[in-house]
Amino acid sequence: MGKRSRKKSNSLGGWPILILGVCALLIGVGCFMALGSGCSEQRGIIADEPSPLPGNPAGNSGVKHYPGLETVNLPEKLPNQVKEYIGFTISFNKENKTPNYVAWELLAEETQGDSQRSNNFWTDSDLEGCPSTKDYTGSGFDRGHLCPAADQKWSQQAMSDCFVMGNICPQDHSLNTGAWNTLENKERQWAQRDSAIMIVAGPIYSESDKQRIGNAGVRVPGAFFKVFAAPYLDEPRGIAFVYPNMKASGNMENYAMSIDELEKITGYDFFPALPDKIEDKIESAYSFREWNSSK
Fold first, then answer.
1. Is 25 exposed, middle or buried (0-12, 13-18, 19+ CB in 10 A)?
2. Distance, CA of 4 to chain centre
3. What is the DSSP letter of 149?
4. What is the spatial distance between Cα 78 and Cα 237, in angstroms, rounded to a whole number?
């Protein structure tokens, strides 16, 4: 997970007609995956049992965690600069000028807070190729957060950090304010229900995604993914969603899939730090109804 103020860390199924556009997009994924011949051998720390969350806030002393859940194994040749912020971790791609992914843990208590949106988008000079907010001006695309501001209300510094341009992608306005926003609202409900969940979000590019915006040449993705895992439940579960970068009509269930299916699309290996039995359980199957229930 990203650096949090409470602990120290060093930075270093039927698809609707509209979703057929995603299917067409994914035909080119083979070209994307060809960028790397496999996943990096570097893996997170694998723990057989979750350990207590260091410095866990009062009132949530029962929360435990597996270390390294923000780690995602990527194709070897994919540009990948990793940096931890207060509430999330970014893998940045200097060629696309966007993240490969952003990962964070969301605790139930972190869905509440007094920190206000800063709306102060800023360029991080530590990230090679990090664009300016002006690169999006007049582009026709929103500055779409991957880790949303509303997940960072628990800390003013975390709120400020999430406006870094390394956490932003060109996103169609109707998606940003529509289905993607709905999913963000759902994730906070799910964190409250399950006490703690892991989230990973990122763009999906195919060879046909050639549009770039701004002086920096920020590459516009054809789709976005978001992955959820609740590994601490008695019955751990996981689910993934893929939305085309356009208005996404219909029920969100139509955009859901297993994490294994998403891994085939992206070439990424999510949650390699989990014990194999838990990783297999949460990635091989999913139940939207179970995820979307109040229990």
1. buried
2. 17
3. G
4. 29
Nearest to 211 by CA among 131, 143, 140, 130: 140
Residue 114: how many CB atoms within 10 A of its CB? 7
Tell me the per-residue pLDDT of 174-191, one tens digit each, with 9 for 90 and over.
Answer: 999 999 999 999 999 999
- Note the pLDDT tens digit of each residue in 83-116: 999 999 999 999 999 999 999 999 999 998 888 8
Q: Which residues contact 176 (CB under 8 A, 6 or more apart)?
A: 142, 144
First-to-last C-alpha distance (Å) of the chain: 25
pTM, two decimal places: 0.81
Residue 207 is which amino acid? E
| CATH code for the structural domain at 17-37+69-116+134-291 | 3.40.570.10
Give residue for tokens 């893996």. Answer: 43
Beta strands in 68-193 (DSSP E): 72-73, 81-84, 89-93, 98-107, 142-145, 168-171
Spatial contact of 248 and 18, defined as CB atoms under 8 Å apart: yes
Whether 224 and 204 have beta carbons less than 8 Å apart is answered as: yes
Question: Tokens 């570097």 label which residue?
Answer: 42
Both tokens of 139, joined, read: 């582009």
Domain spans in the chain, listed from the N-terminal domain onward: 17-37+69-116+134-291
